[in-house]
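Here is a tokenized protein:
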Amino acid sequence: MQPPNTARQRCCSTILHRSIGPLLAAILVLISTSALAKKNNALLVDQIAAVVGTEIILLSEVREKIAPMAAEMKAAGASQGDLMASSRIKELREKALESLIDESLVIREAREMELTVSTDEIDHAIQFNAKQQGFDMDALAAVLEQQGMTMAAYRNQVRSQLLRYKVLNLRVRGRIKITEAEARQYYNDQVREVRATGSFEGAHILLRVPQHARAADAAKVRKRAEDILSQVQAGEDFAALARQASEDRATSQNGGSLGLRSPGEIPPVLERVFTDLEDGEVAGPIRTPAGYHIVRLNSRQSLGVQPFAEVKDRILAQLSQEEMTRQEKIWLKELRRSAFIDIRMK
């Protein structure tokens, strides 16, 4: 009969070393169990939760990782029923073990890359985190104690996070390529619904395409529109080009101005383009039944929406972090495929 588990008493210190092979680990467990039986189960032994390559993950490490959340869940479970609390704790244990397996794989990579984390780096990170949360070191230690975590365990957690950051920077960061165009698309998707409710002042240059024009003739008109757009983007005056080239008699002599417009007053395809523009930006060519349009947004009702230029860096950082998380998951799956992983926790 296997003796009860505990994180404090261990019959054989060797079994706790994280750098033993799976076969040796199994032998030591058998030896430990036999020795404990001879002592009438007076001592308790830690269990192996998983083996990752030549590394072991102990059940006590899983317990330590979930200690703060488990305490909260058990307290909440008292009012929800023991069965529900037990089920959620089991889910926590499984997620914690998966996280520890990932950590082990990252540590293996760090070892191969000869990466390390110094005591000074850990100290600096802990002090920075404490300052960000408004704690001094004594207050931080007290908070950790309330959460069931020792300062030693917290330092080890910070060390793992720093090591992971170093490995990911070298192994994954190069996969992250977020462009300004992607950031702008994200921005437009977020603000479009609000902007669509406000008024705006725009202008356009229209090059007409006859109703039954041949495809080749329509293509020639489009090419002219592209040339005009290039001139505007090169710095030529939009209003002057509108007076020279626009075939909309109602607006051409006013520099193409459409005046102040409210939602629903112009064709939806044009309104959608205006909605996505910032003040002074141009777009086109845009096809409507009338022909090809080059459009310019002169101004719009604010509605409390920050311009893209003010939030661009934040959006780029956010999208980069999201892509980093996605690429990290892909990379970890690649590592798992090439690693020996034996999960023993029940």
Observations:
- The mean pLDDT is 83.
